[in-house]
């Protein structure tokens, strides 16, 4: 039976959707951590990027435990969507705008909250009690901690980007791309 011929199994569809979104989220974290690596919050983004990669591995373990294959087409479509999202207007055509940092961090927060809701839903369905499942409660706790850390990064980025109205410097006058 092919992916398109499978009966409508809500759990399978849900898991495939989250796995595909997880791939796009992984790519978004990779890009944001790379583009903001020299910012004061760059280390936090790099740490969460690594955790997001691990979380995707855990989600794939859930799919295997439930005997649900990933949806390769949906994953590719969402990854393309993530890349197209880079074309957003940000006030600068030639170089990266400081506003891009803020918009990226907001996207990261949305991605982590969706992931947390996915773990929460799987816990509510008692999937954690099934054999071969990763620790869903621990994954949920980690996602919530990631969201908290990202909210702090968001606050810092918003202060840097919006308070200075184009003068994108950190305290002391240094350019954040050099710190």
Strand content: under 5%
Rg: 18 Å
Given the C-alpha coordinates, what overall shape results? elongated
Order of helices and strands: HHHHH
What is the CATH first-level class name?
Answer: Mainly Alpha
Number of helices: 5
Main sheet makeup: none
Number of strands: 0
The unreliable regions are 166-179
- Which bin fits the share of residues in helices? 55-70%
Could you describe the 3D structure shown?
- By secondary structure, the protein is mainly α.
- The protein has a single domain (9-168), classed as Up-down Bundle (Ferritin).
- Helices cover 65% and strands 0% of the residues.
- It has 5 helices and no strands.
- Helix 1 packs parallel to helix 3 (72-84) and helix 2 (42-65) runs antiparallel to helix 5.
- The chain is elongated and about 50 Å long.
- The termini are far apart.
- Residues 166-179 have low confidence and may be disordered.
